[in-house]
Amino acid sequence: MVEKIDVVSTLHFDKAFQKKFDSLIGLDQEKESLLFGLKIILDENGIASWKKKHHKDGLPFLERIKSRSPAIILSGDVGCGKTELALSVASPLSTLMGGQTIKVFETPTDIRAGGYVGDISKRIVETFKDAKSKLTSREFGILIIDEADDLATSREQMQAHHEDRAGVNVLIKELDSLERNNGKMAVILITNRGGSIDPAIKRRASLQIQFERPNPETITLLLKGILDGIKYTDLELQSLVKQCIEKQPAFTFSDIIRRIGENALVKSIKSDSPLSIETIRSVIEKTKPSPEFKQHE
Question: What is the reported pTM?
Answer without folding.
Answer: 0.91
